[in-house]
Design the sequence.
């Protein structure tokens, strides 16, 4: 079973991806500046206090994307 690292996991897209990966049985490490109550309730490993200074590929490529709904988040998670 792979371990998946999710950044920005305290809310929004990151939180939803953590939910779906955990439901699928994956080991999840959730990384964020400050853990939300929702993230803590998931029971995944949380690494809070992390500040990432990386640009996302979408921004580098000039195609900003927003995946805020469950279906869009599901499509962003690779299937085996």
Sequence:
């Amino acid at each position: 079973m792979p371990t998946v690292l999710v950044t920005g996991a305290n809310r929004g897209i990151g939180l939803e991806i953590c939910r779906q990966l955990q439901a699928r049985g994956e080991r999840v490490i959730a990384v964020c500046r400050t853990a939300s109550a929702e993230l803590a309730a998931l029971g995944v490993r949380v690494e809070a206090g992390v500040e990432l200074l990386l640009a996302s590929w979408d921004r580098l490529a000039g195609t900003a994307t927003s995946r805020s709904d469950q279906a869009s988040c599901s499509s962003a998670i690779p299937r085996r």
